[in-house]
Amino acid sequence: MTYILSALGLAALAVLPMLFGDYGTGMLVGLAGYVTLATSWAMFSGPTRYISLATVAFFGVGAYTVAVLNEVLPYPLVLLAAAGIGATMALLVGLSTLRLAGIYFVIFTFGLAELVRQLITWFEVNVTGTLGRYIFLDLEAKHIYWQLLALGAATLALSAWIRRSRLGLALRVIGDDETVAAHSGINLARTKLVLFVASSTIITLVGAIQAPRWVYVEPSIVFNPTVSFLTVIMALLGGATRLWGPLFGAVPLFLLFEWLSARFPDHFSILLGLMFMAVVYALPDGVLAALEKFRRKGNGNSATKPAKEANA
What we know:
- Strands 1-2 form a two-stranded antiparallel sheet.
- The protein is an all-alpha fold and 312 residues long.
- It has helices spanning 2-19, 22-48, 55-69, 75-97, 103-128, 141-164, 166-176, 178-183, 188-210, 219-222, 226-238, 245-263, 268-282, 287-311; strands at 133-134, 216-217.
- It has one domain (2-238).
- Helices cover 80% and strands 1% of the residues.
């Protein structure tokens, strides 16, 4: 029954571009992209509690891969190339950084995104003699949305499978206490690396699929750090340790940020920072965890009330 309902829900979401105009379909593309980004980010960072700000580094690499190869290879091969480049980059980064933890990992991942942006900018200006590239692909917004919808569904399915597997259990133990995990016989480096590579590859594919939307790309567009911060806030708001948490965080926040960026374009970054602090301090475990805690508290009160009346 669960699979049937999931298939029906996916089919209903796939029909939405037929019901909306160009603006509505564009909103669906952005929403599907951020849902997938937040879900893939939470796949690794949720159980391990490693806060990564490198999302935009992989996102931008995926977009630039499409910009460079779209006139050389067929589109499916371009996506495969983007996934391969993202996985290779994640493997190299993971081997060198996943031994870091806490604030050191956060700082490194933030610096990585800026480093990649600067390297690509230097290469474009000094080697190719240009700063941006055009993307000539015959893809409409609805085609991009359908690709993101399929990738998002696959990401959710993969996350659900991981949560029920031994790999997911190992990740949760690592997130609770790495010392205990090591003494339990868990290979810390390999376990974290596998999930980091999988998560980063999906993020790279999101950037690659969304690239044709812009037609013209340059580093300042595809390596915008706002992508990293929005992804983190969305995942944390819904609950990075819950399967559906990133989805419940991404949908309302995406709509809110679209409204804020249109109404207050000069103050958007300030509002984003305030929102980040509010989520971290007020809802550290996410909305779903807070609702579950409130429900348990309500059930506990209703259960103790008859006992007190009986004793009286």
